[in-house]
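User: Here's a structure from my thesis project, written as structure tokens. My advisor, Dr. K., wants to see whether a designed sequence matches the one we expressed. Can you design one independently, without my sequence as a hint?
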């Protein structure tokens, strides 16, 4: 449910931004968000799945595990902040968005807060506290939409609205991720090496996902396409990417269960769960491809406006590639 709220809130925000800013302005917002997501990849994925797997399959001291994970996450954050200070100026020049260079540094403020939020979400997921996890994510989505829209209509600056809205929403949603410490007397010790080994496995997978979702926008701009062309592409891709939020919500909910079945070596039950997930994704993707192939021009006209019709052909193939 929280992923539905996230997807709907994000889609509504993108739709309003697209209509208010026109293709060129919306393209700039898409470029800057892609930069932010690339930087944040190492905080939102990997460690989150690692602690979720450990908590769902082992009786560990959750407080000790959290502190251990916290120092790793903050280490990643510090590294990304230093990297950002070194390269963001050059990136702005390459993408020809130098006028937004100062706002880009807001990304470096968002990084540690978002890292802490997703670390806590990993703990909630591993403890099967899906309701609290869903509430925290929904709070983030709703406040990000509300704050960004207020700033958009008061300042007229889409980049400022989205970045400040994102920062404020993460700060607020952190208060909804309060954790419960369990197994205080547990003798189980999780080594830092084991925790990092689990982190790298998930990180490689989500690195490929992140490249698929964000590098394309940066390459389009970096290789010379206009801001308006990037805006056309981003609007069309937003429709196709709704599938991703559907699939990722299912995968996050099923991950602790799959980890537990794997640990127990319950191969028949595990095979049944994986097959059901595969079949669901297969049929959903096929239906989305057919629907967008037939009606993408109508969908884009209604949701984003006729100025975005030049990229109509992207939507069905984008949806198919996600599946």
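Assistant: Designed independently from the structure alone:
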């Amino acid at each position: 449910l929280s992923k539905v709220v996230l997807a709907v809130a994000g889609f509504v925000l993108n739709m309003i931004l697209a209509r208010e800013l026109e293709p060129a302005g919306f393209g700039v917002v898409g470029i800057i968000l892609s930069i932010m997501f690339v930087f944040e990849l190492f905080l939102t994925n990997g460690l989150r799945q690692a602690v979720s797997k450990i908590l769902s399959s082992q009786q560990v001291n959750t407080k000790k595990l959290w502190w251990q994970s916290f120092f790793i996450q903050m280490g990643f954050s510090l590294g990304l902040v230093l990297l950002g200070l070194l390269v963001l100026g050059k990136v702005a020049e390459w993408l020809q968005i130098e006028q937004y260079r100062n706002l880009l540094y807001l990304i470096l403020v968002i990084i540690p807060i978002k890292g802490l939020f997703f670390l806590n979400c990993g703990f909630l997921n591993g403890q099967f506290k899906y309701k609290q996890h869903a509430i925290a994510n929904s709070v983030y989505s709703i406040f990000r939409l509300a704050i960004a829209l207020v700033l958009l209509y008061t300042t007229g600056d889409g980049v400022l609205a989205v970045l400040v809205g994102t920062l404020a929403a993460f700060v607020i949603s952190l208060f909804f991720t309060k954790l419960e410490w369990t197994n205080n007397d547990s003798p189980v010790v999780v080594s830092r090496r084991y925790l990092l080994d689990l982190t790298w496995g998930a990180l490689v997978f989500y690195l490929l996902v992140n490249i698929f979702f964000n590098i394309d926008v940066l390459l389009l701009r970096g290789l010379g396409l206009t801001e308006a062309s990037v805006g056309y592409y981003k609007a069309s891709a937003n429709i196709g990417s709704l599938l991703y939020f559907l699939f990722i919500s299912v995968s996050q909910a099923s991950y602790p269960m799959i980890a537990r079945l794997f640990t127990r070596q319950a191969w028949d039950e595990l095979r049944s769960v994986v097959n059901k997930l595969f079949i669901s994704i297969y049929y959903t993707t096929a239906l989305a491809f057919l629907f967008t192939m037939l009606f993408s021009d109508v969908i884009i006209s209604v949701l984003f406006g006729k100025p975005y019709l030049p990229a109509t052909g992207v939507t069905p193939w984008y949806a198919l590639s996600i599946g």
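When you compare it with your expressed construct, this may help: The chain has a mean pLDDT of 83.
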